[in-house]
Design goal:
With about 325 residues, the protein is mainly alpha-helical. It has two domains: about 130 residues, Cytochrome c-like domain (Cytochrome Bc1 Complex, Chain D, domain 2, Orthogonal Bundle), CATH 1.10.760.10; about 130 residues, Cytochrome Bc1 Complex, Chain D, domain 2. Helix content is about 35%, strand content about 5%. The protein is built from twelve helices and four strands; from the N terminus they run H-E-E-H-H-H-H-H-H-H-H-E-H-E-H-H. The strands form two sheets. Strands 1-2 form a two-stranded antiparallel sheet. The chain is globular and about 65 Å long.
């Protein structure tokens, strides 16, 4: 049996059944209802505050821009002092649905992920201690922490709690595909529906399933044929040291994929057409025709949901005691 047929067969066999009919492998995204709105507001301010970086210029939003699909639309991100990042910045949108964070899954959740870039010398290049010192020097932040936590104590644990709480709200419900899943069969065109059927029949939903359409497993990039890349990133093998984990990455979400170019861990592919062609050949052993690629791409463009829409935070001003940024060191 060909690999593409085997994957499709395994997928169908694994799907839950309802009245003899396979259930859809993808579910609509639900809107998020925050438990602590004040914590979310604090997290939003911290997410946009560049003073958590050594340069005073880079914030969480720099690489995960909420005006650009939660990413930066660069092959690899730009870090402190114009350093080139090693890997493509994954979207923050719907990231709360991931089984783990980062391409290699080294952070268990959004809270753990939030602290990483602050202290990474190639990203925000600060330390947790210095970041906390900056926040402590700004009285208005003390008030915001007290409102969110009950006391005005500021520490990195609370900082990452708040950022994670804000990021949990960054979901994108009500895409045209979600409307179609909910029963509005006019929400998608015939070509888009054909693209979804081909997407399922090909076995794509073996990896891209659930509400986020990804983020629930780690898979080898280049299952059928090796992926040609200039990137030296090894994937999960960089953590485990196991050759079997080389080029194994967390499956990315396909939600809002039209907005989150360039694609793959190395950000080497700039169009959905090329991405679909490569995934077909390297992961499924299938050569899609131009018409099939067009149908799948049409379907993928229905996955753009309602983008986060909120009032931008007005950040509290620094004081005479606030440590000064050092952008050129």
């Amino acid at each position: 049996m060909k690999i593409k047929s085997l994957l499709a067969a395994l997928l169908v066999a694994a799907l839950p059944m309802s009245q003899g009919i396979a259930a859809e492998p993808i579910e609509p995204i639900k809107a998020h209802k925050p438990k602590n709105p004040k914590l979310v507001e604090l997290g939003k301010a911290l997410y946009f505050d560049p003073r958590l970086s050594k340069s005073g210029f880079i914030s969480c939003n720099s690489c995960h821009n909420l005006s650009m699909g939660g990413t930066d639309n660069l092959s690899t991100s730009i870090g402190h002092n114009w350093q080139q990042g090693p890997i493509n910045a994954p979207t923050v949108l719907n990231s709360s649905m991931n089984m783990a964070q980062f391409w290699d899954g080294r952070a268990a959740d959004l809270k753990e992920q939030a602290g990483g870039p602050i202290a990474n010398p190639g990203e925000m290049a600060f330390t947790h201690e210095l970041a906390v010192d900056v926040l402590k020097s700004i009285p208005q932040y003390g008030t915001m922490f007290k409102t969110a936590f009950g006391t005005n104590e500021i520490n990195i644990d609370r900082v990452t709690d708040a950022i994670a709480a804000f990021e949990e709200t960054l979901v994108t419900p009500d895409s045209r595909f979600d409307q179609w899943l909910k029963g509005n069969k006019k929400a998608m065109t015939k070509q888009e529906v054909n693209g979804y059927k081909l997407f399922k029949d090909s076995g794509c939903t073996a990896c891209h399933y659930g509400p986020a359409m990804g983020g629930q497993s780690f898979q080898k990039m280049g299952l059928v044929a090796e992926y040609d890349t200039k990137s030296k990133v090894e994937g999960v093998a960089g953590l485990t040291g196991k050759d079997a984990d080389r080029m194994k990455f967390k499956v990315p979400t396909l939600r809002n994929v039209e907005m989150t170019y360039p694609y793959f861990h190395d950000g080497a592919v700039w169009t959905l057409e090329e991405a679909v062609d490569i995934m077909g050949r390297l992961q499924l052993g299938r050569e899609y025709s131009k018409a099939e690629i067009a149908d799948i791409v049409a379907f993928l463009k229905t996955l753009t949901g309602k983008q986060p829409d909120f009032k931008l935070p007005i950040l509290p001003p620094s004081t005479n005691a606030t440590p000064r940024p050092t952008p050129f060191e």
